[in-house]
């Protein structure tokens, strides 16, 4: 991949966001969410914006063309390095939940994401974690069980204190022609993600470019604040199954009870909307 200097323009939202980071460092921006939500496509959109349509297909992330998940491993997509040696690296991840997989398989994919966060903790000098982009499919007409479970997994990975690092953005704006429908959907989603927005997560309400969303995540620099999964795996040396998120797969009841709490919240929200 062409790694020529990124050198953002003066008005570029990247410029200010990048300046907060130490020089000569990779800024890692993981893109996470449910399987099929458009994580790989989102990263490809950034790569195309950055390098133009001439980008080679092997430089792009694999995009899912069937109902089954296709991103099964963590994969990195590097943007160019600035003259100060800062480089944004987007991280494509396996879906947190697919809905078609067995619970055991779902757990294995989340474990890969958890292990990646564990690795990042160990490479703090050369690479630092920026914000986390969490994607939601705007084209869905209803909130699914998997959306609630995926949100629980996000919360368990981050922990309450690190939810402020999350940028929630939506995909598939191009498939919805009706402006009013977009407004309604966004309003409902803002309520759905209210519990993390309250903790400082950003919910992107406008149709922003993928690159602008990455800049928002880069701006979420919180040095020296490990995620809950890093505290558990790196600092307490817990195995994945002993972590908060790992316990969802060890004891399915944990995910169910968490899910029930969100379900009650959603019911209350709907009751307040529709009486
Ligand atoms: N129309 C449209 N299709 C999208 C968008 N984002 C993703 N897709 C399609 O949705 C499918 C799943 O996308 P993918 O990036 O593989 O999802 P991932 O599992 O989250 O990585 C692919 O067929 C994509 O082309 C979008 O914003 N608009
Ligand atoms: Mg993918």
Short description:
With 275 residues, this protein is α/β, with parallel strands linked by helices. Helix content is 43%, strand content 14%. Strand 2 and strand 3 (87-92) form a beta hairpin.
Q: How would you sum up this structure, described in words?
A:
The model is unreliable at 1-5 (pLDDT under 50). Strands 1, 2, 3, 4, 5, 6 and 7 form a seven-stranded mixed β-sheet that branches. The chain is globular. It has helices at 13-19, 39-51, 103-122, 145-158, 179-192, 194-197, 210-218, 228-235, 244-250, 252-274; strands at residues 26-33, 75-81, 87-92, 127-129, 132-137, 166-171, 202-203. The protein is 43% helix and 14% strand. A hairpin with a 5-residue loop joins β2 (75-81) and β3. The relative contact order is 0.16. The site of magnesium ion has 6 residues, from α2. This is AIG1-type G domain-containing protein. Residues 31-180 form the AIG1-type G domain. InterPro entries: G_AIG1, P-loop_NTPase. Keywords: Nucleotide-binding.
Entry keywords:
single chain; 275 residues; alpha/beta; seven-stranded mixed β-sheet; 10 helices; 7 strands; 14% strand; disordered N terminus; binds guanosine-5'-diphosphate; binds magnesium ion
